Amino acid sequence: xxxxxxxxxxxDRDKAVFEASGYGARGGFGKxxxxxxxDVNYAFCGDKSEPILExxxxxxNSCGEEAWPAVxxxxxxxxxxxxxxxxxxxxxGVRREDNWDAGSWGWKNSRGAEKPKVPVSNIDGxxxxxxxxxxxxxxxxxxxxxxxFFGTNLASYLQLLGxxxxxxxxxxxxxCVRATxxxxxxxxxxxxxxxxxxxxxxxxxxxxxxxxxNAKYADVVKTAEVLSxxxxxxxxxxxxxxxxxxxxxKAVNY
Amino acid sequence: xSEDVKADRIWDAYLTERDKKVFAASGxxxxAGFGKxxxxxxxDVSYGFAGDKPEPILDSIRRWSNSCGAExxxxxxxxxxxxxxxxxxxxxxxxxxGQSRADGxxxxxxxxxxxxxxxxxPKPTQDLDANAIVSAIAPExxxxxxxxxxxxxFFGTNLASYLQLLGxxxxxxxxxxxxxCVRATxxxxxxxxxxxxxxxxxxxxxxxxxxxxxxxxxHAKYADVLPSSEIIAHVATLSDDLFPGLPKPSAAEGSHLRLVSSS
Lengths: 254, 263
Description:
Strand content of chain B: 5-15%
Oligomer: heterodimer
CATH topology of chain B: Rossmann fold
Shape of chain B: globular
Structural class of chain A: alpha/beta
Number of strands of chain B: 6
CATH superfamily of chain B: Isochorismatase-like
Number of helices of chain A: 8
CATH architecture of chain B: 3-Layer(aba) Sandwich
Order of helices and strands of chain B: HEHHHEEHEHEHEH
Strand order of the largest sheet of chain B: 3-2-1-4-5-6
Radius of gyration of chain A: 18 Å
Strand order of the largest sheet of chain A: 3-2-1-4-5-6
Number of helices of chain B: 8
Order of helices and strands of chain A: HEHHHEEHEHEHEH
Strand content of chain A: 5-15%
Largest sheet of chain A: 6 strands, parallel
């Protein structure tokens, strides 16, 4: 196995402690996995591949050019999940226009009040990037806080589908991916992360959060290994949404 | 990085040069500020995580697989100072610690990633219960103890309802591990729109890199990471009648949890 990305950030004592304390065992895949794609929208990717310090001038949450190879890895996972009829569940943010519901997000970022500066584009920062746009049978969860589970129906949808496990991808590794992994762990789902499908604006946070998750909560594995695992699954494991075209999806009036 | 903190932070040594520029440019790490009605949270400072005495971590984890070693005990001294300051102002002090069935059934996902999990089930060779809060900061009768099974103090517990009952608008978080249960509790408090402060010297972890980077992550987005001295100075400015609804146990009752039979 190649050297994990986090080793360069660890102290020698850290390596000895993890060896001795028994963490980082292989949790193993479940039998009925859903693929989660966390917050892969224009706000976190920017509207094109460019160096992060350029991209965040216009998109303050952007993770820069590392976002786009991850989008390609996620695309390959989505395609295989569709072939096998596995659930693909996206999350992205939702906010009132007057920003009242930003709540705690407004407290720690000095650029929190900025609207995305995109003079030549009408792109909504919360829109999932076109390269992995949801298919009709896919599920989109709108959320307001880091975890895909917080204040949403994600847990009830996984229960409805009969999932026992989640494969997590998206961004940021240290933020919403980590928070979602934690809640999935606490709910006793088996959790795996496709390493190349995760990205972050901070190199150190990306590496160390992968390490923390691999130690206790999830298996951090290569995308190729997840694809091989999907290959071993029989078709027809799930009764997925039938997928009315988006134009026909209706809000319910009460 | 916060404008008002110019000194090097513990996480600087672990960041790349690009990381420092990105954090500065993207606006993260602003000072959120204290709330008006804070509760002190003491996360999982039990023998299981501190060991039964200060000793180097690689010695301590031979007997206590989850131990964070000698650093635990420096943090326990800081937590003790914070708890005393909170109690002096009649502010809530809330502890969490773990619980599981004797047969270990409810350990669930914890067992999947650790090869020494079977040692977490009550072990005959230790006199001390790994989940007992260390005696140096034992809960006092008016304090609140929350028993939990997963990383966050909020998950599957009444912590959110207790904070609502008390009317707290903010939490000061201490305990262990910084990268595990402290971090998980901070995220949930943030998601619930509480103001969150982390007492840097009141937190500890078995991993040096995880400790530093998780403090960085929390300070960037979810919480103000401050020295306990600054928190104690703030607490000293608060009036002592903010929480008329604190528990008022009689001497005989104490804070011990008891089972209520219901019909």
